[in-house]
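Fill in residues.
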């Protein structure tokens, strides 16, 4: 390890999403990422206006303020989790690169702190469709969560991303602590077949989503009549 790496703050995980609603699968991904990647903390960033949803004319089902509150309730009590409300409060669509640029200007992130963007394998394969995607590697590392026994295969990625993956991939999560940005690692996470779409369907049909969501989130949904049967 270089002297510069020894002086860097511990890596900070960045976990963005619509969280419509936040569920147990999200929580396990963040928890296992913190453990396996040596993250000091995972910062949850709910998107106020998810850009991909806006382009598809499919806005989130509930307001950003509700999604933010559900994240706050879900992560309460976990000292390694924190929430960033800035994207919910913004009046513009949320894009990952501008969000990372904002974090780099913040005092606690600064220029040198390692930032680790947490994504699932499917989302990672779609990164070439993201706004200014090649700038991601100037701003953060990327950690890709995959199903046990199904690691990321460069040959299955879009050609431009496959080349970058081969150049930047590291087999050791320790590489994340050695520079502020630019590496790609992957990690296997417990497979939980849970989706927000599934949960919204259950709730809108009056069925139980118990054990798919934290109890505090279920109580909030019930008290605010979110996702109620139509």
């Amino acid at each position: 390890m270089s002297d510069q790496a020894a002086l860097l703050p511990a890596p900070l995980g960045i976990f963005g999403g619509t969280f419509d609603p936040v569920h147990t699968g999200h929580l396990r991904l963040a928890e296992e990422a913190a453990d396996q990647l040596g993250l000091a903390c995972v910062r949850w960033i709910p998107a106020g206006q998810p850009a991909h949803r806006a382009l598809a004319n499919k806005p989130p089902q509930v307001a950003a303020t509700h999604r933010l509150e559900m994240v706050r309730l879900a992560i309460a009590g976990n000292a390694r989790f924190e929430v960033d409300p800035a994207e919910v409060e913004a009046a513009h669509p949320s894009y990952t690169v501008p969000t990372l640029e904002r974090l780099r200007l913040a005092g606690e992130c600064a220029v040198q702190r390692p930032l680790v963007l947490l994504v699932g394998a499917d989302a990672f394969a779609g990164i070439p469709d993201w706004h200014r995607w090649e700038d991601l590697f100037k701003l953060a590392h990327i950690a890709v969560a995959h199903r046990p026994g199904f690691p990321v295969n460069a040959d299955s990625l879009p050609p431009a991303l496959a080349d970058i993956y081969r150049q930047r991939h590291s087999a050791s999560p320790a590489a994340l602590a050695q520079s502020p940005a630019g590496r790609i690692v992957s990690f296997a996470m417990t497979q939980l077949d849970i989706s927000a779409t599934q949960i919204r369907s259950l709730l809108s049909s009056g069925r139980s989503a118990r054990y798919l969501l934290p109890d505090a989130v279920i109580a909030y949904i019930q008290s605010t009549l979110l996702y109620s049967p139509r």
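Residues 49 and 171 are 35 Å apart (CA to CA).
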